[in-house]
Amino acid sequence: MAKLFRIRATRTLLAASACLMASVATAQTTVSFQNGINGYTGSIDKVIASDGIDAGTGLPNPNIERVGSEVQNYFLDGGSPDRNALYQFNSIFGNGANQIPMGATILDAKFSVVTSGEGNARTGGNFFVAGLTSPFTTTTTYNDYAGGLGAWWESGTSTRPVDGVGPTRSGNVSSFDVTSLVQDWSSGNLANNGLVIQAGHGGHTTDGWSVNSTSFSDSTRRPKLEITYTTAAEAEVNVFQEGVNGYTGNSMVLVDSGSIAAPSPSIDANPVIIDPINGDQPDDVSYDGSTITAGGFLDGPALSPYDSNGNLNPIGTVGSRDVFGLIKFDNVFGNGAGQAPADVPVGKAYVVLTTHTSSTDSPATDSYKIQPLYRDWNTTDLPLHSEFGDIAGLQQSDGDVGEVLDSMVGVVTGTEVWFDVTSYLEAARAGNPLGGADYGLAVTSNTTDGWQIAFNGDTDLTIRPRLVVVSAPSSIIEPGLSGDFNDDGIVDLGDYTLWRDNLGSSNSLNGNGNENGASAGIVDMADYDLWKTNFGNTSGVSPALASVPEPSALALVALALGAVAFRRVR
Questions:
Q1: In this protein, which residues make up the domain named Ice-binding protein C-terminal (predicted)?
Q2: Which 8-state DSSP code applies to residue 379?
Q3: Are 183 and 242 in a shared domain?
């Protein structure tokens, strides 16, 4: 799920004249941590395995419990045996160059690894990432973790998994969204003890996966952590979860199509929910989410042409029910405590659903999606599957739902799934809801592998669905144009003039300068190089797509270069 978005600062354009004034700190910065890149050497990795201890000696087998600094790559696995990889990125928080200030709002964080070139390196998946709750070293073993499950959330040795990857190919980069974990590190809610990649327990894969280590020969193909953050006071994060911190605005319904065909279904029977025949009614049923205390299964529809004895079933017999969830968060915007400001745009928003643990069948290997709902509903008069539009169930073609906002593929027991619903929530906040009215969201699937999630009536409040909202002014959310120092929508000589007149100062260059490494907070030659690279670009055109300057424009660049030389010698 790609969740990266650009943030830039609101700046007051300083006159390119005598008075050089200090500006506020940049509102968005992206930093990356990868051994051997930009001088960073702070990451370590270690494989821990259920078969990693030699039965004869009682000591770790170095050919299994591998240390990343000693090998180019290593294999991870599920239950045949269980092999996890531990990763630590040290020295990422602080006030130094290329560090993240503690307390910063994390806008996006991606942890990526590369599938190695070893034989059979690829995997069919799925593998997941979680945060570690205690530190590790290069001598840590699988057996050092309580419960005999390695670093696993049910043993209290890791957080719940927060993201996963499916099938991979040799040489491909696999990226995990770890925004929530890095935010907890920044906020001090969780110590930065590192990350773990695991196949999980319960419904896990046994298809191994080989990935490059932190000492791989090509440093650009090593494990990498890339983080976008802001220290702007205008940005704020609010979380809405039924029964937590006084919030009571979440409604949910589980809608079940039913599964039994009528005695003599017609050839025109709906393939998902049997049409009434001879007075018979569909056996669909719905449940108020507040009454579901131990998880509810979602599922996708499928016909069952044959019974268990191989005999032909009546037309329309359902083999897998269509079961979906409806969810809506009210009272999100306002001026009250814990509300997101109604007059500030939504920069990012997620609906977080948690995979339940009450059944061994809770995990799903198939895809589920989230869409804006275009049909009205409530929990007083529960909507039935047969009551949606002209065709029972939810179809985009029937006007029931809108475009897919986000989707996931595969989870293990306890996994949190972060669905990106930014466009839906911002439209609702702005008074222009998708579909014309805000009826909430629907979570559905077209596959037949059921997924058990926690509903808003679960006895464990911490796993009830939650809405996470990042609010930020539109001037911060709008993408900046690199090199456009005067923010007029084009990179031209006007930007060069502003750079020249503020060289060596702390002028912000309207948030469109180079803020990486030693260039952060100062106007220097790195800003000039950025301007030169993007000369001629306009808003909405990336450098890769910008037209090459015409000869006259090139002449202007040459003139600008001459001005730089003149400034240096006078």
A1: 547-568
A2: S
A3: no
